[in-house]
């Protein structure tokens, strides 16, 4: 069921995460994006976006618009779709090498889901996954 839903779930254009240090966070996400073959779309003094026009969902990174300190959402996670298990492993390793923290090493979760979980430098939770 999840596998068929995932193939049809194209309603999300992008996800934006907060940061306390845009330059530091950009290096983390540049490394992840490079492995995924996803370029930066644009960069300003307060916002960076990775993705491709009319492509799959992208990621934005910014300072909170309201000027308050960024915080990590409880229960919020961004899932990055990998092409295979080896790429899941590489993305998890890249995240840790860039200073991220492990939230669960790559491995099977059930019969058809393979994922590795990590947090970025600001504590935002992500995973890299593949179905099948």
From TrEMBL:
Gene3D superfamilies xrefs: 2,3-Dihydroxybiphenyl 1,2-Dioxygenase, domain 1
CDD domains for this protein: VOC_like (cd07262)
Domain VOC: 11-131
Protein's recorded name: Glyoxalase family protein
Highest taxon of the lineage: Bacteria
Gene source species: Hyphomonas polymorpha PS728
